[in-house]
């Protein structure tokens, strides 16, 4: 009898091994097929663009000229529904680079430091550094230049001496309380402004890395189209300001909670911008939009120079290129400017990933969030994922497969948003998770977010379900205060 039990036990053990090996065959197939196109350690070119919103040709817009980004997108997987986890630069960058969600007490504002909010966590560059990569940070990757400094072999910033203007008359307008004009048109070379310097440094790095032959994680943090909208004249001349129009949702509906709006204080810091609650007149609004467009075209040209050199050196054959904007931006949407809100215009972001010989310009409509980038790059590079990561690898999406997640959670200050299906649901909460205001938009028939459904009786059940779902998805540490 004991001999029979032993046979049965062995059979059950073998069956278990077979089931375990076959539990996720699709994922293993994806990993193998993609890794066949790459060397053991593919390079990573990690391009961050400050304040870049997905108002680009490959996202369906036709008014901004960005031929180099368009070409990159035609060779990449384009994520059509990509969302940042917090719409402010410092916090967003700390979140994507650690793979951690923002909480009520972590990753809060523009001045967030990874070293303060997540000091014991291995960041994305640190993980690659520990796996034999040369890691270089150029320009604005973290908000603070010395943040997470041990994760990089080199950190470099362009020399500006705190002055981002090419023209003396604009530099002279800077004071301790004022940042100078909100835009500048100057007959200067591309390299006069910071992004031209960053592109040139990236090109020098690629040439140096080509010689060493070592795998690299090269991060380029471009400054534009962040304010001030300073760009050489030729980029301004690409647009006819008379043909620029205000956005369709240039309105603040009464059904939307008033706390959803703000005074766009970031913009009001600049010389010549109305102060307090004074509105931006249409002429100035068009000039700002013009400046944003010119700045995008300018940074597009700088990125193009780097990508051209990557090809010329033969490095593109084994380099994964990731391009992302740290958050969206309001160009008059809801009569707002800058970011700092939880409307889609602040949360939706450009995200394109090029894998040589794999991606070919396909667009993916799965909802993804920035905390998914870290685990994805680990899997694409054959690196073991750290256990702290809260996102999900997007690797199956690169072969047209599905993943077990199709939502995003974003927050700014007291507002927390769940993006799920066509629903865009926001709650304003306190430290106990108690709700004071709600906002719900159905993008099926209200993509401009003008009709708040949250207080309508017929949506009461949907609000209840979305509220519960939000609490299961915002992370188990969301309401916890950090230990002192």
Automatic annotation (TrEMBL):
Alphabetical UniProt keywords: Calcium, Hydrolase, Metal-binding, Signal
Gene3D superfamilies the UniProt entry points to: Alkaline Phosphatase, subunit A
Superkingdom of the organism of origin: Bacteria
Listed PROSITE patterns: PROKAR_LIPOPROTEIN
Cofactors named for this entry: Ca(2+)
Sulfatase N-terminal domain sequence ranges: 42-383
Similarity comment: family membership: Belongs to the sulfatase family.
Name the UniProt record assigns to this protein: Sulfatase
Species per Swiss-Prot/TrEMBL record: Namhaeicola litoreus
């Amino acid at each position: 009898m004991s001999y029979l039990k032993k046979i049965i036990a062995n059979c059950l053990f073998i069956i278990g091994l077979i089931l375990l090996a076959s539990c996720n065959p699709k994922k293993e197939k994806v990993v193998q097929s993609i890794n066949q196109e790459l060397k053991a350690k593919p390079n990573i070119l990690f391009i961050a663009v400050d304040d870049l919103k997905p108002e680009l040709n490959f996202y369906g817009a036709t008014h901004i000229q960005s031929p180099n980004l368009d070409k990159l997108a035609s060779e990449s997987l384009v994520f059509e529904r990509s969302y940042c986890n917090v719409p402010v630069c410092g916090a967003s960058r700390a979140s994507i680079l650690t793979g951690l969600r923002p909480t009520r007490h972590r990753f809060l504002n523009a001045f967030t430091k990874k070293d303060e909010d997540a000091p014991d966590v291995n960041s994305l560059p640190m993980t690659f550094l520990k796996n034999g990569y040369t890691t270089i940070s150029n320009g604005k990757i973290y908000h603070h230049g010395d943040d997470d400094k041990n994760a990089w072999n080199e950190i470099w910033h362009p020399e500006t001496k705190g002055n981002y203007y090419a023209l003396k008359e604009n530099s002279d307008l800077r004071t301790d309380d004022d940042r100078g004009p909100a835009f500048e048109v100057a007959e200067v070379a591309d390299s006069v402004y910071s992004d031209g310097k960053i592109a040139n440094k990236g090109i020098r790095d690629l040439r140096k890395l080509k010689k060493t032959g070592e795998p690299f994680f090269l991060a380029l943090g471009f400054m534009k189209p962040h304010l001030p909208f300073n760009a050489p004249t030729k980029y301004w001349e690409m647009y006819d300001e008379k043909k620029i129009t205000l956005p369709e949702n240039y309105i603040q509906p009464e059904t939307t909670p008033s706390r959803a709006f703000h005074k766009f204080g970031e913009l009001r810091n600049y010389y010549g911008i109305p102060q307090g609650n004074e509105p931006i007149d249409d002429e100035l609004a068009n000039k700002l939009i013009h400046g944003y467009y010119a700045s995008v075209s300018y940074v597009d040209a700088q990125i193009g120079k780097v990508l051209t050199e990557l090809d010329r050196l033969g490095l593109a054959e084994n380099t994964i290129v990731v391009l992302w904007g740290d958050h969206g931006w309001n160009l008059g949407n809801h009569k707002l400017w800058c970011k700092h809100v939880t409307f889609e215009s602040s949360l939706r972001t450009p995200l394109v990933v090029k894998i040589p010989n794999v991606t070919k310009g396909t667009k993916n409509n799965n909802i993804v969030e920035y905390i998914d980038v870290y685990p994805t790059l680990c899997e694409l590079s054959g690196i073991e994922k750290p256990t702290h990561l809260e996102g999900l690898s997007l690797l199956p999406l690169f072969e047209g497969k599905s993943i077990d997640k199709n939502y995003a959670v974003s927050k700014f200050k007291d507002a927390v948003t769940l993006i799920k299906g066509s629903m865009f649901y926001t709650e304003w909460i306190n430290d106990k998770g108690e709700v004071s205001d709600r906002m719900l938009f159905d993008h099926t028939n209200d993509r401009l977010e003008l009709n708040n459904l949250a207080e309508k009786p017929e949506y009461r059940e949907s609000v209840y379900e979305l509220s519960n779902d939000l609490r299961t998805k915002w992370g188990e540490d969301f309401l916890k205060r950090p230990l002192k």
